[in-house]
Amino acid sequence: MNIKRVVIVGTMVVVMSFGGTSWNKLTVSASPVAKWSTTSVADEDELLVALNQSSDEELYEALYDGKSLQDIVTEHNGNISDVINLQVAQLTKQLQLRLASGSISVQQYEVQKAELRDIVTQSVRTSFSIE
Questions:
Q1: Which runs of E-coded beta strand occur in the chain?
Q2: How far apart are CA 69 and CA 43, in angstroms?
Q3: What is the mean pLDDT of residues 84-98?
Q4: Does the model's pTM come out above 0.70?
Q5: CA distances from 63 to 39, 43, 53, 130, 131 (A)
């Protein structure tokens, strides 16, 4: 598999996991990477629960430090299968919305859905360092 594709998809998976309501709530900060504001997000973020993280900031810092989602789960005694299943479910829902809106064909939907679990699993296990 192309590493560039893994990096792009992995980044998309992480970003999408923060929740759809956060897309329009980016905040400006002195940090070189934008942080998400979660003031309008529901009571508990499913990804934070699956990772046993207490806050977005804690997760953000761990990812910024180059840890993979698997590293984070291991450190916090979580279940990696829960993280993978959650992300596959969220991405499947997005694919279904794209199919329903007509932005992808049935064939594209089936191909992308068939690849989801493998891509997410590889992404969860991959760490990215920012240099």
A1: 26-27, 35-36
A2: 22
A3: 95
A4: no
A5: 21, 22, 12, 9, 13
